[in-house]
Amino acid sequence: MSGAADVISSFLNAKQFMLIRAFIFVSAQILCGACGWLWQGWPGAIAGVAAASLALLLADALRARRFIHWLQEPDPATSPALRGAWGEAAYRVTRALRAEREGARDSARRLDDFLAAIQASPDGVILLDAQARIEWSNDAANQHFGLDPHRDRLQHIGNLVREPAFADYLAGRGQAREVTLIGRQNTPARPVRLSVQLHPYGAGQRLMLSRDITVLAQADAMRRDFVANVSHELRTPLTVLAGFVETLQSLPLAEPERARYLDLMAAHSARMRALIDGLLTLSRLEGSPPPDDDEQVDLGALMAQCEAEARGLSALLYPPEDRPQRLRFAAPPDFALAGSADELRSAIANLIHNAVRYTPAGGAIDVAWQRLPDGGARLSVTDTGCGIAPEHLPRIGERFYRIDRARARESGGTGLGLAIAKHVAQRHDGELQVSSTLGQGSCFALAFAARRVRG
Ligand code: ADP
Predict the structure, then answer these.
(1) Angle formed at CA 135 by CA 150 and CA 216, multiple of 5 degrees
(2) Beta strands 364-371 and 326-329, pairing class
(3) What pTM value is reported for the model?
């Protein structure tokens, strides 16, 4: 439709249109009638009026036919170019169609935006109809429940998520506001937990939300284990201490026996203090930002201190007259490490003390630094001690994880040494590496990235 017609139609209303139509009709009849009268008198006039009426009716019928034909499949792009009232009708229909199509496009665009936003959610979203059948689900939900968006569309959710707890929740049995389910990708090595909620909306439909809470559940389990472990570790020395105090209070003991009891009490309180010190060190390591790399740690001095301590410990455990251990410390490294001297000393000392404690009399312990091909550095502590069975290796470095609790406790262990060493390594852009063969010995190493090595 032309711009002129647009302008005209905005001025004229339906009544004015009809007046113009009538005016054109009557004018054509008068004109043709006058021409006929001039030509043949009254018969000519009647013939002229009839001819004009017929011609106008025919033209109108043809326009109406074109318009109705177009209306059967109206498309703004093929809108017929008609004059007069039919043109106006076609123009208005075209304009309404365009507005409707624009509106539909707008709605579709907005729907796409909504779906893309829901798709981007890390949480699972499923729209259920009033019969609890799946209408739509996002990728996260498909992954959580192993759904195929095409195959499982309009399937009852209860047929696909079959845990009894979910069936009860779906049926509205009980007061639960959410349920925790086992995820589809759950394996014994990697347990997956999902938190699922249902929210009603619309006419009986429900929005089903699922969230992967594996990490939260693990953190919760770790916290529970941790509290249980700490309580357990503290309870043993406390019980022993309480027993000794009671004995000392109630029995008149001879002086040597009394002194022996007091020594044992001192040993147990030292163990408790070591445990608390270890816990405080761990919480400090976890709660503070990694050490910045302005401080350069002199590894020569640090290793000399560790060597002196290790020789002292070894001599205490295995006196020189009783098949002493052989401790070999390689030449001090000619490079420095950027980080915290205190943290590094505690990590390295832990590895060396463990090697001394878990290697029998006559065994050998080798401590050496080496540069790595990628510019990093690695400290290895190799012993010929009891070694570790392969099934324990993945858990080495977890707090309180000990292979032989009684033995570790006897040798003064708290079960926190390797956890501290692992943390310190990570805070210095490094890692704790463990390799071991049961009955033959172990190698514990701290490997640091090149950006921490100076010189
Ligand atoms: P602990 O204070 O009990 O030694 P750690 O965290 O230092 O605690 O070590 C955890 C466990 O790892 C020990 O209980 C021991 O079973 C094992 N372990 C550590 N170092 C060695 C080693 N050099 N040889 C054999 N086992 C070791």
Answers:
(1) 90
(2) parallel
(3) 0.65
What residues does each domain of the chain span? 2-105, 121-212, 219-288, 292-454
**CA–CA gap between residue 430 and residue 449 (Å, rounded):** 6
Residue nearest to atom 14 of ligand 1 (CA): 402
Q: Whose CA is closest to atom 19 on ligand 1?
A: 354
CATH of span 219-288: 1.10.287.130
* Nearest atom of ligand 1 to the alpha carbon of 412: 2
Topology of domain 121-212 in CATH is Beta-Lactamase (3.30.450)
Our answer on whether the CB atom of 358 is closer than 6 Å to any ligand 1 atom is yes
Q: Quick check: CB of 208 below 6 Å from ligand 1?
A: no
Residue spans of alpha helices (H) in 251-298: 255-287
DSSP annotation of 122: S
Q: What is the residue-level pLDDT of the chain in tens, covering all 455 positions?
A: 444 455 455 556 778 878 888 898 899 999 999 999 999 899 999 999 999 999 999 988 998 999 999 989 888 888 888 887 888 888 889 999 999 999 999 999 999 999 999 999 999 999 999 999 999 999 999 999 999 989 999 999 999 999 999 999 999 888 888 999 988 888 877 788 999 999 999 999 999 999 999 989 888 888 898 889 889 888 988 998 999 999 989 988 889 999 998 999 998 899 899 999 999 999 999 888 999 888 899 999 999 999 999 999 999 998 888 789 999 999 989 999 999 999 999 999 999 999 999 999 999 999 999 999 999 999 999 999 999 999 999 999 998 888 887 766 666 678 899 999 999 999 999 999 999 999 999 999 999 999 999 88
Q: Does domain 292-454 have CATH number 3.30.565.10?
A: yes
